[in-house]
Amino acid sequence: MEKNLIARKKSELALGGPVKLPEGYVLPWRLSRSTAGPGAGSAGAVFSFEGVRVKKAVSYDSGDFELRDDGNILSLTRGGRPFLERIKLEPVVYHCPEQAFFNLDQRCMYHCAFCASPRLGNDVTKNLTDDKIVSMVRKALDDGMTVDAISLTSGVVGSPEETVERFVSCVKSLRKEFPDIPIGVEPYVSSREDVLKLKQAGATEIKLNIESPSRNIFEKVCPELGFDEILTHLSESVKIFGKGNVQSNMIYGMGDTDEEVLSMVETLCSMGVIPVLRALRIGDLSRDSLESAIGKTVPVTADRSIHLVSEQKKIMEKYELSSARCLTMCNRCGCCDLVPFKDL
Ligand code: SF4
Ligand code: SF4
């Protein structure tokens, strides 16, 4: 399949609804229950084709796509029509393929309108101690799984400083046990010292999310967070972690324009930060809060995603940055959005 068509198919699959499984179909791998990211709150499986992969919610009841199994070949249809002639199911280590990605705590003292993690209800990340995380990674390796990266995210519990301490302690334990595996961290930091502590603990890459390309939208959807503070901490992080080792998520589709998205891409790249463009996907857990904050949104299309990520790639080239060089977190995984330099 030609590269642009692969990117289009990936984007359509990632932006679409769940995959319906045939009645009684038993997946070869256990389902992955996400507590963060676009799939938070749902059980998903990873489908791969033509060198790309997409994590999808699956259901036996209904879906935008249907899995077909003719005994030897798996394929996907959409509305009964052929969509992908040949797909595979990929094993997930923890949360994503070839990577152990943990959410240290899905609770959060903040209330970002798009974020499902704090609304997951029961404490799904309870008992995830440092020792438990180390032993889970060890077990995956002992079971013969590929674990090329370890990543940690978390809601903010108690205070940003306390949460950073939780990251620091976990990174130290992991670094001691797995000296050669890159570790990515996605905290909310409140000072340069927080960033320094994470680097000194042994983190390889850091992701501080700017969340929206638009200050106006940011203030509506993340009313308790500071837009300028995040930009300042991103700049400090580049000095500590190095150019290209700092990433930042930007959700588009919350009423932003293409110009706003690409302007923020340029701002981040000029600082040495790798932008991670995330198409907005609204789950049941975040629909009400998002609509109260910004009203109804227009769903992101594959055309818009392809346009933005193609332009993002050009800007990144100008600043000699590449998402393909990221060792951890979403750019390494690539399951939820188009990744420039990999998919386009
Ligand atoms: S800071 Fe916002 S985006 Fe991050 S976990 Fe908390 S509510 Fe979610
Ligand atoms: S792309 Fe990111 S959010 Fe999606 S499955 Fe991979 S690590 Fe999780």
Give the SSE layout.
Layout: H1 3-15, E1 19-20, E2 32-33, E3 43-49, E4 52-59, E5 65-69, E6 74-78, E7 81-90, E8 95-96, E9 99-103, H2 130-142, E10 149-153, H3 160-177, E11 183-186, H4 192-201, E12 205-207, H5 215-221, H6 227-241, E13 246-252, H7 258-271, E14 274-279, H8 287-294, H9 302-318, H10 329-333
Description:
This protein has 344 residues and is of the alpha/beta class. The protein has a domain at 3-90. Helix content is 35%, strand content 21%. The protein has 10 helices and 14 strands. It has a 7-stranded mixed beta sheet. It has a 6-stranded mixed beta barrel with strand order 1-4-3-7-6-5. Strand 9 (99-103), helix 2 (130-142) and strand 10 (149-153) form a beta-alpha-beta unit. Helix 3 runs parallel beside helix 4. The longest helix has 18 residues, at 160-177. The radius of gyration is 19 Å and the shape is globular. One iron/sulfur cluster is lined by residues 108, 110-112, 115, 117-118, 155-156, 188.
CA gyration radius, whole angstroms: 19 Å
Bound small molecules, by name, code or SMILES, are: iron/sulfur cluster
The H-and-E topology, N to C, reads as HEEEEEEEEEHEHEHEHHEHEHHH
Strand % is 15-25%
The averaged pLDDT comes out at 94
DSSP helix fraction:
25-40%
Q: Can you tag this structure with a few keywords?
A:
single chain; 344 residues; alpha/beta; seven-stranded mixed sheet; six-stranded mixed beta barrel; 10 helices; 14 strands; 21% strand; globular; binds iron/sulfur cluster
Short summary:
The chain has 344 residues and is α/β, with parallel strands linked by helices. 35% of the residues lie in helices and 21% in strands. The chain contains 10 helices and 14 strands.
